[in-house]
Write a structure and sequence with these properties.
The protein has 276 residues and is of the alpha/beta class. Helices cover 45% and strands 12% of the residues. It is globular and about 55 Å long.
């Protein structure tokens, strides 16, 4: 699908919004939304742009490597910031305020890095579609005055993907990703070991070509949510089932279950809510 004149106009509005700022730091996960935001900032602000990527046990190493790669392609200053969510008891309790608590800490740390370099505006890549999800992190961003330029010009996820594809960037169709804590049921205390087990299990899915799936952690049980009917059919074949079971047990789970409903965004939240 080509980029329409209407979408081009939205992108020009985005660039104009960013151009009104003296400089900008972008909370850059390496996902498609923050990639478009960062690319637009580099286009209009050049070396007055800074990419900041939060790094902790909550964020898969693959995601951090992908962010480093895209930032390199965009030739932008990029800092990977080690954040300390896992030292905060309120966060580790894993209540329904978890994402709000987490985002407040992350934005605080990113703002500190930006301000140390003379940059006084931080933006994140929330898009128009995100408003329909359960995203307590948006409340944290609003309270901390983190800018949302994609939202300001009402860009949707599909439009963001089209624009990133038009720029020739390889992550235009990358599946959405939430932090690893979203794989753990609320009120189950978070540990580094639990998050590492989930990360290792999802690495198995990626290595086997099951893109966009999730491994929900229920104690010793890994509940697989796969993203398509084709993936579920393939997972049940004798050879693939053996690889999945072997890989997830090596990751630390005792039991492997396939969720017949497949991937649902935010399946550990309320039935009508999306995950952060």
């Amino acid at each position: 699908m080509p980029v329409t004149p209407e979408l081009t106009a939205k992108y020009n509005q985005l660039k104009a919004r960013i151009a009104s700022l003296p400089s900008l730091a972008v909370a850059f996960s390496g996902g498609v939304d923050s990639t478009l935001l960062l690319a637009a900032a580099v286009e209009v602000l050049g070396n007055r742009t800074l990419a900041l990527t939060a790094d902790s046990p909550l964020h898969p190493a693959r995601e951090t490597r992908a962010a480093v790669d895209i930032a390199g392609r965009l030739q932008v200053r990029h800092i990977v910031v080690r954040t300390e969510e896992m030292k905060q008891p309120d966060f580790l309790a894993n209540t329904r305020d978890r994402c709000y608590i987490c985002k407040k800490m992350i934005f605080r740390d990113l703002m500190s890095q930006a301000e140390a370099r003379g940059i006084h505006h931080l933006a994140h890549g929330v898009n128009q579609d995100d408003l329909s999800d359960y995203r307590p992190g948006l409340k944290a961003a609003k309270e901390m005055r983190v800018l949302a330029p994609l939202l300001d010009v009402r860009l949707t996820k599909a439009e963001v993907r089209l624009l990133v594809k038009a720029q020739g960037l390889p992550n235009w169709n990358r599946p959405a990703m939430a932090c690893l804590a979203s794989r753990i049921p609320y009120d189950t205390a978070l540990t580094r070991e639990m998050l590492a087990r989930v990360e290792a299990a999802e690495d198995v899915l990626d290595d086997l070509g099951f893109s966009g799936g999730r491994v929900r952690c229920h104690g010793d049980v890994a509940r697989l949510e796969l993203s398509s009917e084709a993936d579920m059919t393939r997972a049940l074949s004798h050879a693939e089932r053996h690889r999945l079971v072997q890989g997830l047990k090596a990751a630390g789970f005792l039991y492997v279950a396939l969720d017949l409903e497949g991937y649902r965004q935010g399946s550990l939240n309320d039935p009508l809510a999306g995950d952060e």
